[in-house]
Amino acid sequence: MTEASKQPRSTYYQAFVRDKFRCVYCEKDILESFDSFAASHLDHLKPESARGPCEDVWNRVTACGVCNSLKGAYDPVPGEHVTEENFATAVANAKDYIQKKRHGEANTSYFRDYQYWLEESAKIKAQSKR
Ligand SMILES: [Zn+2]
User: Fold this and answer.
1) Ligand 1 center to 21 CA (angstroms)
2) Sign of the CA dihedral with 87 first, then 89, 90, and 95 last
3) pTM
4) How sure is the predictor about 7, in pLDDT bands with cuts at 50, 70 and 90?
C-alpha cells in the first residue's frame, strides 16, 4: 500500500461521486460539457453564514451554477447540522426553495429582473430596426 492510498479522498471527491456527477437540486449532468463543469460548485448545504462546516461531506453537495445562485444563503435545516440522517431532508428542502424561485413562485429579484429584461430587450431590438 502506498502512502497516498492511505489518505482519505477529499470532501470534493466524495461529494461528487456520491452525487453521481449531477446537481443535487435539478439533476443537471455536471459533466455534459466543459462549461457545465466550469460553472458547477461544491455547495454548502447549510451555508457558511449559518456555520455549515466546509470539511464535512454531508454538508457539501454538487450544484450547478444556477441552483447555487438561486439557493444563496438559504438554510435548509435551521438549528441543526446536516448529517447522514437528515441529508435527504436538507436536500429536499433546498430543492423546493430553489424550484419556487426558478418558477417565479417566490418573490425574487432574479425572476423580476428576467421578466423586465425580456420586455426591455424586445423594445430596444424593435427600436434599433427602425
Ligand atoms: Zn442545478
Assistant:
1) 11
2) positive
3) 0.83
4) low
Q: Are 45 and 61 in contact (CB under 8 A)?
A: yes
Q: In angstroms, rounded to a whole number, what is the distance separating the alpha carbons of residues 116 and 111?
A: 9
What integer best gives the mean pLDDT of the chain? 91
Q: Residue 104 half-sphere exposure, CB side, CA atoms within 13 Å?
A: 6
Say what percent of the chain tops pLDDT 90. 73
Q: Which three cell numbers stand for residue 1?
A: 500500500
Distance (Å) from CA 30 to ligand 1 centroid = 9
65-71 long-range contacts (CB < 8 A, ≥24 apart) are 65/39, 65/40, 65/41, 66/26, 66/102, 67/23, 67/25, 67/26, 67/28, 67/43, 67/98, 68/41, 68/43, 69/110, 70/98, 70/101, 70/102, 70/108, 70/110, 71/25, 71/43, 71/97, 71/98
- Calculate how far, in angstroms, residue 24's C-alpha sits from the geometric centre of ligand 1: 7
